[in-house]
Specification:
The structure holds 2 protein chains of 2 kinds. By secondary structure, chain A is mainly alpha-helical. Chain A has a domain at 48-153 and 169-280. Chain A is 70% helix and 3% strand. Chain A contains 13 helices and 2 strands; from the N terminus they run ααααααββααααααα. Chain A has helices spanning 7-30, 39-64, 72-86, 91-111, 117-136, 147-154, 172-190, 192-202, 204-209, 214-240, 252-261, 273-292, 297-315, and strands at residues 158-163, 166-170. Chain A has a two-stranded antiparallel ribbon. In chain A, a hairpin with a 2-residue loop joins strand 1 and strand 2 (166-170). Chain A is globular, with a radius of gyration of 20 Å. By secondary structure, chain B is mainly alpha-helical. Chain B has a domain at 48-271. Chain B has 16 helices and no strands. Classes of the chains: A mainly alpha, B mainly alpha. Chains A and B meet through helix 5, helix 9, helix 11 and helix 13 of A and helix 6, helix 12, helix 14 and helix 16 of B.
């Protein structure tokens, strides 16, 4: 059983437990409570992790190809803004449509024009930002999330009453993340498309010569990434009940970090989805525990960077190039 | 003749950047009511200096086939450090400047050491060190502020003639060659010339510097040829840190304060990548150079300058609408980076696209 879990996932999970233990010792010492291992806290963190996890899931597909999508921040913001502006029953389809369009543009730019993804998606991000500034006048839109968006993010159909009017519930956002994860795992491991992603990520020329239409694989992957980002945008808008400028900026680097800490090779071709999930939880827990410990922003940034580097020094080292 | 043709073909990206800058800046200057005056040159070069330095900082790691996502953070780090150190007596100021530049180079060296000895991919290693540098900047300057020597700020952000009036170089009055000649040159332009021809050009000519190009073309071949891959890579990241340090120092001198502005750091990093690509350096490494990036950065800046001068009542008045500027900047950036797509239509064998 333990053999089927790869080393990065194992180490990252161990680190998650270590963070919780360290946090619990801290709270026991200062407040006399073990709030970090209470189900209420863990369920709340899981809900917050669902947003980052949705973004990271899409990012992982693109990173598996050896590419990257830097247009994620404004794909999140644009989907959420346009969805809340449209409102009504069409809010969610239109929001996802934004993601689809962005993914197609990214995919075509990378697959057909062969512009390096890092710079092309950067340009698309700038265009999306410009479009949103044009449409909203640079202010947060006044419209708010539709009830169904709020329900998808906050609703807790599976909840257990624990007395005193409180419940332990799993939020819909977490269920959506679980569904998405199941679909992605199936796609990556059980479908030809998933195999093509790993093949093209390892060596695109070899995949092309083997008869794989690598352009379609690239476009499909960028569409998946942007759709995940727009889904996250809709969920975040539902969670905070409105869309605002720069709402996606806080998700780009943590998403890349989550994927890489989870053991996916940034050069593509290698990585397990379970690692991305554990990486997401690790980053959310780290951020949350540090903020509960009242660590100033400066210290949080430093610890954040040091943790990523030390995790990668343990299992993310590449081979030396010797000829 | 064939040699010239070949050289032009190999540096077509560079010349496109120069041409883009020339066209955009000519457009701007001819539309500006005070265009082609020293005041405008001074103002524009002040606004461009930090981006030019950060773009040069980005270029060196990119040449080796790597990337440095911490250039904006290193700039911010030095910016915050400078706001604590660069004031007081002349010797304190000089010492402060040296410490700031050393801090930038040290930050770059740490990046290089993690990439070379830690063997972590540059993109993720510098992403993480960038977070660390931003954290240190926040420690150094939790809220915007600090102090920079006023005379230094005045001199460094004006034409050279102000050096004379501030420090009294010519007690008997400035001679003509200074007052009407070299004295009109904006100091930031002079500094860029000094850094390009005093640091970058000599570095490129050393074995270590040429090694950076060789590693970018093929790291395996460079290793097999006996080049010191580790030394070249360390030098590349360290030099990147030094250039970012120049940018941060100048930003502090220009604004008279330090600010650990995280979005600003990210913005500079992303713009630096765009400037490098527009300047004709390949993101895969091995070709291009820092001088191209100077023009890449100038092109990016000229685009935003242009939007300031369009007459709101004219035929292209809609271009002056501030709400539309971000989208125009975005579209132009996207078009500029898509220029590289031209090679797709030139390749004879589709397999060569995948490298």
């Amino acid at each position: 059983m333990i053999k089927s879990i790869d080393r990065p996932t194992l180490i990252a999970s161990g680190f998650c437990v270590a963070i919780l233990i360290a946090g619990t010792i801290y709270t026991l010492y200062t407040q006399g409570t073990a709030s970090f291992i209470e189900p209420t806290y863990l369920l709340q963190q899981l809900k917050i992790a669902a947003f980052l996890g949705t973004v990271a899931a899409g990012m992982m597909v693109v990173i598996l190809l050896g590419h990257i999508d830097l247009s994620v921040p404004w794909t999140i913001a644009a989907s959420a803004m346009i969805a809340t502006a449209v409102g009504g029953p069409w809010a969610i389809p239109v929001g996802l449509g934004v993601g689809l369009a962005v993914g197609l543009i990214n995919g075509i730019g990378v697959a057909f024009l062969r512009v390096p993804s890092m710079i092309f998606t950067l340009g698309v991000n700038a265009v999306l930002r410009g479009l949103m500034v044009m449409l909203t006048g640079g202010f947060a839109p006044q419209s708010s999330a539709t009830p169904i968006m709020s329900w998808l993010a906050n609703g807790e159909p599976l909840s257990v009453p624990i007395g005193g009017g409180h419940t332990w519930g799993i939020a819909n956002a977490v269920l959506m993340w679980a569904l998405l994860s199941a679909a992605l795992v199936f796609m990556l491991t059980r479908t030809p498309f998933g195999r093509y992603i790993y093949a093209a990520g390892n060596r695109e020329a070899a995949a092309y010569l083997s008869g794989i239409n690598t352009r379609l694989v690239l476009i499909g992957s960028f569409v998946i990434c942007s759709l995940c980002a727009s889904m996250a945008g809709l969920l975040i808008a539902g969670y905070t009940s409105k869309a605002f400028q720069a709402m996606g900026d806080a998700y780009l680097l943590p998403a890349i970090a989550a994927v890489v800490v989870g053991g996916t090779n940034i050069l593509g071709g290698q990585g397990k989805y379970s690692g991305t999930v554990v990486g997401t939880i690790l980053i959310v827990l780290l951020q949350s525990v540090l903020s509960v410990m009242q660590m100033p922003e400066a210290g949080r940034q430093i610890i954040y960077g040091v943790v990523i580097i030390s995790m990668l020094l343990v299992y993310g080292r590449s081979k030396a190039i010797r000829g | 003749m064939r040699d010239i043709g070949l050289r032009l073909q190999q540096s077509v990206g560079f010349w496109v950047a120069v041409a883009l800058f020339a066209i955009l800046y000519t457009l701007y200057s001819s539309l500006h009511p005070k265009g082609w005056t020293v005041d405008i040159f001074v103002q524009n070069s002040n606004e461009s200096f930090a981006l030019i330095m950060v773009s040069m900082a980005q270029t060196v790691p990119v040449l080796t086939g790597g990337i440095d996502l911490s250039v904006g953070a290193m700039m911010t780090l030095v910016n915050c450090l400078a706001s604590n150190l660069v004031s007081g007596s002349p010797s304190q100021i000089v010492l402060g400047i040296l410490v700031c530049l050393a801090a930038g180079a040290l930050a770059g060296f740490v990046n290089g050491a993690i990439v070379v000895y830690g063997r972590i991919q540059p993109i993720i290693a510098t992403l993480a060190t960038g977070a660390v540098y931003v954290g240190i900047s926040l420690f150094l300057r939790p809220s915007p502020g600090g102090k920079i020597d006023d005379n230094l700020s005045w001199v460094a952000t004006n034409a050279m003639a102000e050096m004379d009036t501030t420090y009294g170089w010519f007690p008997d009055g400035a001679p003509g060659w200074f007052a009407h000649g070299i004295g009109l040159l904006p100091v930031p332009i002079l500094l860029i010339l000094i850094i390009v021809f005093g640091v970058w050009v000599p570095f490129r000519k050393t074995v270590t510097g040429r090694g950076c190009y060789a590693i970018g073309s093929s790291e395996g071949a460079a290793y097999m040829s006996g080049l010191s891959v580790a030394r070249s890579k360390l030098a590349a990241y360290t030099l990147g840190g030094l250039f970012a340090g120049f940018g941060g120092l100048y930003l502090a001198i220009q604004t008279g304060s330090g600010n650990a502005d995280i979005p600003q750091a990210g913005g500079y990093t992303l713009n630096s990548i765009a400037a490098v690509v527009i300047g004709g350096t390949s993101l895969f490494g091995g070709s291009g150079g820092a001088i191209g990036s100077v023009f890449g950065a100038l092109t990016l800046r000229s685009i935003s300058f242009c939007f300031r001068v369009f007459d709101t009542d004219g035929q292209v008045g809609f271009l002056a609408n501030p709400l539309l500027q971000p989208i125009f900047e975005g579209v132009i950036l996207l078009l500029a980076v898509s220029l590289g797509a031209a090679r797709v239509f030139r390749v004879k064998n589709r397999l060569s696209l995948f490298t």
